[in-house]
Specification:
This protein is of the alpha/beta class. It contains 6 helices and 11 strands. The chain has a single domain, classed as Glutaconate Coenzyme A-transferase. The chain is globular and about 50 Å long. InterPro entries: 3-oxoacid_CoA-transf_A, CoA_trans_fam_I, CoA_transf_BS, NagB/RpiA_transferase-like.
């Protein structure tokens, strides 16, 4: 069994450089690869294309990369919680490709499975479909969307083992699983790293074949994006 464990986030991000394309898991601030993002910020690499469901918030998550102008293009679905993202997009500083959320997930999944493209009805008849191939299947129109191509996928799981097998917990089981294996190199950070062979095979969500590097994360903040509580009577 191949040992995928690396000893630090620095070792896990070895090989990153300017002008690369990264996938980053998470939904809102749930299940984002906090350690990897911090390492990318500290590396000062720039001209990045980032594929992520959302763009974090101003002072956390991908918002930290945006703050330092390290991202040249965002490929996302929901970006409504980041004022700096909005400013850069409206000023023309940031190239933005907005994608329907289901299409974003399926383009990740297509890359994971080795499919070059998918056909989806989402976006037909709108600006999303402009310049793209459109075909009819059983009387319904579909838009051709290409699978993503990325250099690195950074994901976060609850538990993993040295062989790269992953278990996700709660809402963190969102875009993380479909991004595993969807890039040239998948880096997984986990809250708990255990020896290979100790995880229950029936509980594993992503097998280690989809992961090239895995490390034990630390100092997770796990922020809540929008916290709402009921006023006590």
């Amino acid at each position: 069994m191949i040992n995928k464990k690396v000893n630090s986030v620095k070792e896990a991000t070895e090989g990153i450089s300017d002008n690369m394309t990264f996938m980053l898991g998470g939904f809102g601030l749930s299940g984002i690869p906090e350690n990897a993002i911090k390492a990318l910020v500290d590396s000062n690499i720039k001209e990045l294309t980032c594929i992520s469901n959302n763009a974090g918030v101003d002072d956390f998550g991908l918002g930290l990369l945006l703050k330092k102008r390290q991202i040249k293009k965002m490929v996302s679905s929901y970006v409504g919680e980041n004022d700096e993202f909005e400013r850069q997009m409206l000023s023309g500083e940031l190239d933005v490709e907005l994608i329907p959320q289901g299409t974003l997930a399926e383009r990740c999944r297509a890359a994971q499975a080795g499919f070059p493209a998918i056909f989806t009805p989402a976006g037909y008849g709108t600006e999303v479909a402009e310049g793209k191939e459109v075909r009819e299947f059983d009387g319904k129109m579909y838009v051709l969307e290409h699978a993503f191509k990325a250099d690195f996928a950074f994901v976060k799981a609850w538990k993993g083992d040295d062989a790269g097998n992953l278990i996700f917990k709660g809402t963190a089981r969102n875009f993380n699983p479909v991004m595993c294996g969807a890039a040239t190199i998948t880096v997984a950070e986990v809250e708990e790293l255990v020896p290979a062979g100790t995880l229950d095979p029936n509980q594993i969500h992503i097998p280690g074949i989809f992961v090239q590097r895995i490390f034990q994360g630390k100092d997770y903040e796990k922020r809540i994006e929008q916290r709402t509580v009921r006023v006590r009577e």
